[in-house]
Structures are given as C-alpha cells and as structure tokens.
Design a protein that fits this description.
Elements (H helix, E strand, L loop, with lengths): L2 E4 L2 E4 L10 H5 L2 E9 L2 E2 L2 H14 L7 H15 L4 E8 L16 E8 L4 H6 L1 E7 L14 H12 L4 E5 L5 E4 L3 E6 L2 E4 L10 H12 L3 E4 L4 H5 L3 E6 L3 E8 L2 E2 L7 H13 L2
Parallel strand pairs: 7-8, 7-14, 11-12
Antiparallel strand pairs: 1-2, 3-4, 3-5, 5-6, 8-9, 10-11, 10-13, 13-14, 14-15
Length: about 280
C-alpha cells in the first residue's frame, strides 16, 4: 500500500493533493516573477512579462499562454485593490510522482499572490550595511528559477552579521550581484555594475537604474568589480523591485563615503521616481 505522511497524518498516496507532488517543491522545477505597483499602477509590467516568458522558454516549460498569465495577474491585482502591492507568481512544470524526468503531457501549475508593500523609509534615508559572501548559486542565474537555496543561505548569514544584504563574489574574486538585488558602485561620475551574463539576472530594476543614470548624466560602465574596488568607491547602492534604490553605507565593515547616502545615489533615486509618476 502506497502511503504518504502530511505533518503527523498518514494518508493513501492516491489521495494526495497535487500541491504535495508539485515539481517546484521537489526540484525547484519552475520559474517566478515579482512585480510591484505604485499608486494603483503596475510598474514595468511588460518588461517583467517578457522576462518571465524567457525564463519559461529557457527551462522548456511549454503549454503556458503568456497572455493568459498577464490577464490573471491583472485580474487578481485589480480585485485586491492594493495601490502599492507586491505581485508574486510562479509556474512550475506541474505535479506528479517524484521523478527527475516528467511525463510529456504534464500540466504546468500556476500560483500568484498580491500583498501590500509597506515603504521602508529608513533604508532609503539612512542606507544599509552589506557583506560579501561566496557566490554558490547555479550557473544560469539569468533564468529566474525557483532554485534559491544559495540565496536564502547567503541572506541568512548576512542577517546574522547585522547586514541587510549579501553581495555575492564568484570564483574569480569578482562581484556578481546581491543575493536579492542588483549591485552598483559610483566613482566620481561613473556608475559601474556587472555586465549581463549567464550568472547575472537581467534585473528590470537594473534596466531603469541605467536609464536614470543616463538622465542624470552619469557614465555607465558595465564591468565587474572586486570587493576591494567596491570599498574604495565614492558611493554604493543596491536595486531591487520591491525597494527600488537602497544606498549601501557600510560594506564589509568599511564605511562608504561619509557613512550617509551619497549625493549621486540620491539623485538617481529622484530620477527613478520620475519613471513611476
């Protein structure tokens, strides 16, 4: 007799709900997206949907209608009625008996949440501390997959050390990105960030930060930097969908600048706000 146990309850295997057999749970076999809204309007909706479609194609999840996903997101967001919301959704390859190779006719599973974003004014006005940790993620971070254990462990370690973000460093000693953010350095009037490669997520927020930099007449340099170079920068900041631009005022216990959000970072924050009005 095939059995399963959920918490402390034994149930026949054939009575298990599909959620307990989901390949996202077993293998992280799926992709996700996080979008936010400002004042009742979804920001950069099409850019996020295009990235989601690329992620689906990259891991060969088929039979997913992007227009249908777009409609589901919009319908749930409108129904929630939350002006400033975080919209999370994922698609997994589907549910079935645990096997590395799934059946050809498996039906993808969809899940979505809409929750309120409470602005973190302190992080924006005072800045955060960050530390570097080894980048232990898989080699296709350009795919926004559900495989986030390495990110979780890095964030946990950063939190233990009193830091708000872990900045990841690859085997060559170069900074890739944050565990949950894109990473930027400003030296004089040059904005530097790692180029988009297979180990860098094509961040939508990153895209708008680079536009803001052009509007602020900063030179953009897409080149990886070392932790030592980052410590010597005039200003540092991270960028993430739910928080926008967040100044980094301490990096590996080294105070950056005068220990306050820098002038050019604040300028970029102002420029970014113009995109959402």
């Amino acid at each position: 007799m095939q059995l399963a146990m959920i918490q402390d309850k034994i149930v026949p295997f054939e009575q298990l709900e599909g959620i307990y057999l989901d390949r996202g749970l077993y293998f992280g076999d799926g992709v996700y997206e996080v979008i936010r809204s400002y004042n009742g309007r979804i920001f950069a909706f099409e850019e996020h949907m295009q990235r989601f479609a690329r992620s689906l194609a990259a891991i060969e999840i088929k039979n997913v209608d992007i227009n249908d996903i777009r409609s589901r997101v919009k319908k749930t967001f409108d129904t929630a009625g939350i002006p400033n919301a975080k919209i999370y959704f994922h698609v997994t390859r589907g549910s079935g008996p645990r096997s590395h190779v799934s059946e050809d006719n498996i039906k993808p599973s969809f899940f979505l949440t809409v929750t309120e974003i409470v602005p973190n004014v302190e992080k924006k006005t005072k800045g955060i501390s960050a530390i570097t940790l080894p980048d232990l993620r898989w080699k296709r971070c350009d795919i926004k997959s559900l495989n986030l254990l390495a990110n979780v462990l890095a964030q946990r370690e950063a939190a233990k050390r009193g830091c708000a973000e872990a900045i990841l460093v690859d085997e060559k000693g170069l900074i890739t990105e944050g565990a949950s953010s894109a990473f930027f350095a400003i030296t004089r009037k040059n904005l530097q960030t790692a180029p988009l490669t297979a180990n860098i997520l094509p961040s939508v927020t990153r895209k708008f930060v680079l536009k803001a930099a052009e509007n602020a007449r900063l030179s953009v340099v897409e080149k990886s930097l070392t932790p030592e170079q980052a410590k010597q920068a005039d200003e540092l900041f991270i960028a993430v969908t739910t928080l926008d631009i967040i100044p980094v005022i301490k990096f590996n216990d080294v105070v950056i600048g005068d220990g306050k959000p820098g002038e050019l970072t604040r300028k970029l924050m102002d420029e970014f706000q113009l995109f959402i009005k």
